[in-house]
Amino acid sequence: MFKRILGAAALTIGVIAALVGCEAAQINWGNHFYVMSNACAPSPLTAGATTLRNGAGVIGTPGTLGGTRVTLQSVHYGDLTHDGIQDAAVFLNCHDTIGGNHNGSEIQIFTRDAKPVARLIAPDKYGSGSPFPPYFIYNEIQIIDNTLYTGIESYLAGDAHASPSEHDLYRWDWNGHGFTAVDVTPTVTLGGARLTLPAGWVAERVASSTQSHPILPTWCLMPHSGPAPASSDAANCTIAFSAAPTGPSAPALTVDTPGGLAGNPEYCDPAHPQTISLLGKQDSTLGARPASYRNWLYACADGTRWPVEQYVVATAPAYVLYSSHATPAVHALMTNIAKTAQLPAI
C-alpha cells in the first residue's frame, strides 16, 4: 500500500517520473515529495503529502493545531535490500506548527530513481498507553555492513515529554518484501552496573596500565572487538567505564581530576607544556544516581588536543564514565549511556 500510494502521488506531480537513471545518492532528498503517515504525524497532526523545500514542508494549515511541519533530519546510504543497488534511508520528523508537544518520526527507504521501498515506524515495544509515541534518535541511525540500525526512545505512562524512560536499539532485516525490526539492544553488566551500548559496540577489559595510582577495574566501550586496550586513554578506548572497589582500602574518587582518581594526568609529552581548560562543570546523573560532570580540554604545545569528559558517582558503589576522546559524537554517546545506565542503589 505504501508503494502504491507514494508512487501514484509522486507521479501525479511529475516528481518521480522525472527521475530516470538516478542513483539514490544523486537525488536531492531535501527537495523531494513525501507522503507522511500517522506515525510521523499522530493526531491531532495532519498526515498526508508534502514537497519539501530546502529540507522542510508543511501539511495542513500552519498555526493551527493540525498544522504539521515536516523536516528532513538525515539521509543514510547502503544496499539495504541486498540487490546490488544503493538505497537511501531518509529520516523525517513531523512537528506541530504552534510549539506544542505533538511530534513523531519515520524513516522512508528509497532505491534508484527514488522508487519507494518501505516505511519504517518506531516499534511500540512497551505499549504503555503514553500519549507520546516512540521515536527514532537522530544520532543513533547508522548503516553497518549494509544493514540499518536505529536507536529508539519510548515513553512509559506518566513520563514527561522531555523524559522518555526507555531506550532500545533495533536492526532492520530485509525479508524480501519488507523490513523486520529486530531488537538488538546491547546491554552489558560491568562491576554490578548495566549499560546500554551503541549498536555494534562491545566492552573490553583494560589489559594493563602504567598509571601509578591504584587501578580501578576498567572496561573500554568501543565500536568493535579487538586487542584489549592498554589503558583508558588508548586510541581504541573510545569511552572508559570504571567501578571502584568497596571496603576500607578502596581508593577515594575525586570529581575534579580526569579519570576520577587524585593525580596530575599528563596527556602531552612531559617535555612540553600543556594548557588545561575546564569547559564544563555541573551536577548531573549517571544511571539515575547523583553524579558530578566535568569536561576539560588539554592542549599540547605540538598542537595535539585532548577533549576530556567524565561523570563520577563518588559514593559507594562508585563509578566513573570517562573519555579522553570526547568529540561531539562521543559526547552524544556518553550522554545517552549516562542516561540509560542502571547502577546499584546506595
Q: What would a concise description of this structure say?
A:
With 346 residues, the chain is mainly beta. The chain contains two helices and 20 strands. Helices cover 7% and strands 41% of the residues.
What attributes does this structure have?
globular, disordered N terminus, single chain, seven-stranded antiparallel sheet, five-stranded antiparallel sheet, mainly beta, 346 residues
Structural write-up:
This protein is mainly beta and 346 residues long. It has helices at 2-12, 328-340; strands spanning 33-36, 48-51, 56-59, 68-78, 87-96, 103-111, 115-120, 135-144, 147-154, 166-174, 179-183, 187-190, 193-196, 202-205, 218-222, 239-243, 274-286, 289-300, 305-313, 319-323. It has 2 helices and 20 strands. The strands form 5 sheets. The protein has a 7-stranded antiparallel sheet with strand order 14-15-16-20-19-18-17, with helices on one face. The chain has a 5-stranded antiparallel sheet with strand order 3-4-5-6-7, covered by helices on one side. Strand 6 and strand 7 form a beta hairpin. The termini are far apart.
Q: Supply the helix-strand structural class.
A: mainly beta
Order of helices and strands: HEEEEEEEEEEEEEEEEEEEEH
Shape descriptor reads globular
What is the subunit organization of this protein?
single chain
Task: Going across the biggest sheet, name each strand in turn.
Answer: 14-15-16-20-19-18-17
Count of helix runs: 2
State the low-pLDDT regions, or none. 1-17, 209-214
Main pleated sheet: 7 strands, antiparallel
State Rg.
23 Å
Give the DSSP E fraction (strand runs of 2 or more residues). 35-45%
Average of pLDDT: 87
Estimate the helix proportion, in percent. under 10%
Count of DSSP E strands? 20
Distance between the termini: 53 Å
